[in-house]
Amino acid sequence: xxxxxxxxxxxxxxxxxxxxxxxxxxxxxxxxxxxxxxxxxxxxxxxxxxxxxxxxxxxxxxxxxxxxxxxxxxxxxxxxxxxxxxxxxxxxxxxxxxxxxxxxxxxxxxxxxxxxxxxxxxxxxxxxxxxxxxxxxxxxxxxxxxxxxxxxxxxxxxxxxxxxxxxxxxxxxxxxxxxxxxxxxxxxxxxxxxxxxxxxxxxxxxxxxxxxxxxxxxxxxxxxxxxxxxxxxxxxxxxxxxxxxxxxxxxxxxxxxxxxxxxxxxxxxxxxxxxxxxxxxxxxxxxxxxxxxxxxxxxxxxxxxxxxxxxxxxxxxxxxxxx
Length: 323
Known about the structure:
Layout: E1 9-15, E2 19-26, E3 31-38, H1 45-60, E4 71-75, E5 79-80, E6 85-86, H2 99-106, E7 112-116, H3 117-128, E8 137-142, E9 146-152, E10 155-156, H4 187-191, H5 193-202, H6 215-223, H7 227-251, E11 255-259, H8 267-280, E12 290-293, H9 300-309, H10 316-320
Family: Belongs to the ROK (NagC/XylR) family.
InterPro entries: ATPase_NBD, ROK, ROK_cs
Organism: Streptomyces lateritius
């Protein structure tokens, strides 16, 4: 997957467990028209699909819609880009859901490209963010879940099914808690926002008067010096550091870019992350690995989905498994 995008206009969809966002995106990366709906994550699959259709219907009201060449989808995973299906861990109503086919029907047969949300974020950061100019990078989304993607040899590497770099389901605790994916001790089970908050609550952290029990509230308490809140973030940072170091050892990345809502904690996350990384990334070829916050923020999913959809030099089909 190349990120030297040509001029044009595409439809981008960013599908997660909390929201379904859509945009018409220009070849320069500008989000020209936006639409969004909450994800009815606990409803049946058709209800979730209706929310996707509503987003597309709103975008289609724009006079720019007719000029859109193609559609890119970045979805919570796992995805199967070859089959065009999605099975997001946090959307139980979608298991093997034929998303590419269903979206294709709505958008008048325009070509539809599907990648995992971690790969989408990686494409965005390589195109316009902190990984720009790097030949080898790992990009992570740390939010409700933990996803990721790889840049290898200057190109985003989605893998055969679009899931390469899905670091959230790498096990970093062999005797750890069961994960929703069916594994045990996964990074996501330790470092995602809900699990940071869960661990803090289990260890005696008390939310403020507003009753907010989110990871952001835990981060605020950590900034104020609450030791339980600090410890919960340190544990998350340790899990992330172990997985980043393992990835760097395996494929020799130069930079790890961390985005998503949990990354908004700033130094509460990044300071212990860098400290922990120094204890895991000890070999000479990984010791100088750089860790930095993502730059594309909340636009990452849409920019990455757009990057997947734009016309590219040869081998796009091989890189993405376009349905």
